[in-house]
Write a structure and sequence with these properties.
This protein is 45% helix and 11% strand. The protein is of the alpha+beta class and 444 residues long. It has three domains: 9-142, no CATH class; 158-251, no CATH class; 274-411, no CATH class. The strands form four sheets. Strands 1-7-12-9-8 form a five-stranded mixed β-sheet. A three-stranded antiparallel β-sheet has the order 3-2-6, with no helix packed on it. Strands 4-5 form a two-stranded antiparallel ribbon. Helix 1 (9-24) crosses helix 3 (50-65), helix 3 (50-65) packs across helix 6 and helix 13 (307-318) packs across helix 21.
């Protein structure tokens, strides 16, 4: 028993991407952007992820109709195809200016991101143009040969869940779509047995069942949601062992806040563009009650000047430091790391920073990606892999920086989160009363 492929999925994806490309680059698609697009299409066509991208396309269409926002978690947000299919996703391409009036295209060699660069006049037609791009290589999503397997897990508002269920039912009309629930634990119960801490099962996504089966065919996985509706439980691996396709939909407090702010102000969250976010500062974000404690501490400690700096701080607060210190970022160790000569020369915060610096030192792309993957997994610090890592023919300074990490976060995840924070902070600038009432849960 199998789950069928979605009919015409690749054709639909390409059609939607082609349409978006002409909207973004109306005076002609620059050659290197076209090359990136075609390369990703080849990888997609030869991958196991055509259905995943088609599901994302359809969910994005539904989210637009609902005036809500959905986003993915992890590296897949660095895909140019993902950007073309989604709503208000960030552009992963190298930083560039493009003039929609005359087609002038200019790649900018910088460590900053497009959102950090000033508005300028087009040298050809004098039209005002803004830079775009967040410097994410295709390898971060697909690997150097297109064989990397990115995860597809969504952040959504809880109210979007039933709409998502209807989308999946339309994509798989011959298959049962079962609710997928996750046990919620009582944090105040001291027992070490999870079953004794469970206080309910909440809807956390959906499961696409193999053709010809129903939820009753999986009695070992059945539980019940808080409203009494039967659901499947268990981890992704348990479902996959039963040939069930899980669609994980995490409820996001930040997205819920955006929707509440949208309702209160009349400003659609998915229409807040990078142009509106350019003037949002670290203090606007830190004073908006959206950051977790260790990220807030780091923002206030370093006072990031650019979005690049904020994204680096977001990555640092989720990498080695937060894994080793659950209460807050160890600022002393952070300062010690960034003050070293090696780190000043190779300031690597996200795994893509290592990749970028390796390329700049002349390392071949495939090897640079392989090394950056070793670093992000902590091989430079692992007794099992350290000796082999130290034999790599890469600069000693990069090896020194790599030894600061046991885990390195992906840039795409950090970009998505910082832009999400910035959108929330934007509402504080345009309607402080509505913002205070919603975010601080008091009457303004």
């Amino acid at each position: 028993m199998k789950i069928p492929n979605i009919e015409n999925a690749f054709v639909n994806i390409k059609k939607a991407c082609d349409k978006k490309l002409t909207e973004l680059y109306p005076m002609g698609i620059p050659a290197d952007i076209s090359a990136r697009y075609e390369q990703e299409l080849i990888f997609l066509k030869n991958s196991e992820h055509i259905n995943d991208f088609e599901i994302f396309r359809k969910l994005s269409e539904e989210a637009l109709k609902c005036s809500t926002i959905i986003s993915m978690r992890g590296t897949v947000m660095g895909s140019f195809i993902y950007y073309l299919l989604g709503n208000n996703c960030f552009n992963p391409l190298p930083v560039h200016y493009y003039c929609p009036k005359c087609g002038h295209y200019e790649v900018v060699s910088t460590r900053l991101f497009g959102i950090d660069l000033p508005e300028k006049k087009c040298p050809n037609c004098r039209n005002s143009i803004l830079a775009d791009g967040f410097n994410l290589p295709f390898e971060s999503v697909w690997g150097s040969n297109g064989k990397k397997l990115p995860a597809f897990e969504y952040n959504v508002s809880p109210e979007f869940l039933p709409f998502a269920g209807r989308v999946l039912s339309s994509l798989y009309p011959q298959n049962s779509i079962a609710p997928w629930g996750m046990f919620q634990m009582d944090p105040f119960t001291a027992t070490s047995y999870p079953d004794n801490r469970a206080i309910g099962v909440s809807l956390s996504g959906y499961a696409i069942l193999p053709t010809g089966t129903t939820i009753q065919d999986y009695p070992d996985l059945i539980s019940y949601l808080e409203n009494g509706e039967p659901c499947l439980t268990g981890g992704s691996w348990e479902l996959k062992d039963n040939n069930i396709r899980p669609i994980r939909l995490f409820s996001s407090d930040h997205i819920e806040s955006l929707l509440n702010l949208q309702r209160a102000t009349g400003i659609y969250a998915n229409e807040i563009t990078l142009k509106e976010l350019r003037n949002i500062t670290w203090s606007n974000i830190a004073n908006s009650a959206v950051l977790i404690e260790n990220t807030s501490n780091l923002f206030r400690h370093i006072k990031p000047k650019t979005y690049r700096d904020m994204i680096c701080a977001e990555s640092a607060s989720h990498s080695t430091f937060s894994w080793q210190n659950t209460d807050q970022t160890d600022l002393y160790e952070y300062d010690k790391m960034i003050s070293s000569d090696s780190f000043k020369k190779y300031p690597c915060f996200a795994r893509e920073d290592f990749f970028d610096f390796l390329l700049e030192t002349g390392i071949e792309r495939a090897l640079a990606f392989d090394v950056s993957e070793q670093i992000r997994k902590g091989h430079a610090n692992s007794p099992k892999f350290r000796d082999k890592f130290n034999t790599l023919l890469i600069p000693e300074g990069i090896k020194d920086v790599a030894q600061c990490y046991s885990y390195v976060f992906p840039r795409a995840h950090c970009v998505e989160y910082v832009l999400l924070y910035a959108r929330i902070a934007y509402y504080a600038q345009v309607d402080s009363k509505a913002f205070s009432k919603i975010m601080y849960r008091r009457k303004a």
